[in-house]
Amino acid sequence: MFTFIVLTSIAVILSFLSQNKNKDYLLYIGFAILAGVMGFQDSISVDFPGYMKDFDSINRGVLKGVLIRSQDMRGDAIEYGWYLVNRVIGFVIPSFYAVSFATCLFFCFSVAGLIKDVVPAKYRWVATSYFVLSPMIFFMSGLRQAVAVGCFIFAVRSILNKKKWYVPVLWLLAGSLFHTTLLIALAFLLLLLIPEKGRVFYAVGLSFLFVIALFFGEQYKTELLAFGLTFFSDNMDQYAYYMTEDESIAYSFRSIVRIAFPFIFTVIPMFKAKGKDFYYLLLFAVGQVIYGFVGFVGNLQRIALYLTIFAVASFMVASNHIKNQLINAFFIGGNLLLNLYMFYVMLGNEQYSNFLHYRTIFSIF
Question: Is 65 helix (H, G, I), strand (E, B) or coil?
Fold first, then answer.
């Protein structure tokens, strides 16, 4: 854990220093360090041994060629993009850690680019801190979806920055080769086409749906599980096993605070936000509503991750629209403390308990 704290703290400090003129490169150096924390972990996350097994199967199995998957593998359970990255990098460096670092570096740089593009320079360290305490931990186990989410970030940025139409299309096609749930997330891009003039209606409507999700969502538990199992079994069978557990989506008071606090402070600025600010706030708010409904219902929560990742931008966009300095400090400090507390709670979960003994493969510390 000491190694984790030291390395992530260095990344946050570099993000803080990057606010100085012509120091943007420090932000990327900091996120390269975070990519190392993710990619060079010594099998701390629960899915890492499975990824290593896939790498061995891809590179040491009976293969027909570099670009053709072998039939003795897990078939369609390994997406073609993930297969190809393992195969090509494995040719050059016969170690799964080269694959894990490369994929984590891509993901981290996609987040760093988002922060640089959207977050005021003085708040970059806050956005980085949030990334460390929340999404980074999950994606240390979800490397394939990390690549897909990174591609989705680039696609959204290319649309909002008015790039040519084929740029987001190429990003989305590339991401779907790593995690086919990205094909579902295509619908979220329609949010970028709705007119800003209806911002009041959107904010009120999302708030209404959010309240229903938190306080009445449990009533739809059986239907959500049945829908998820049927959908993934019929369309993306490799993910269907996530839907077999009967997990409750009833929220404790602590969970409600964790979800509602950022939602409230994000949806309020939507009444006046314009341009890219409005759309980043909208993406995150919709993600929170979806997450409120699906909770921890198997694979369905993974769909919300394509939107909730924009918290690293939307939180600071929201902060920039809060004129009262005291309220702004409460929002920033409250978010950091809340995520720090949830990180502490997470360490008590059996799935993440290995982080207490975090170490890299280099065993530096």
Answer: strand
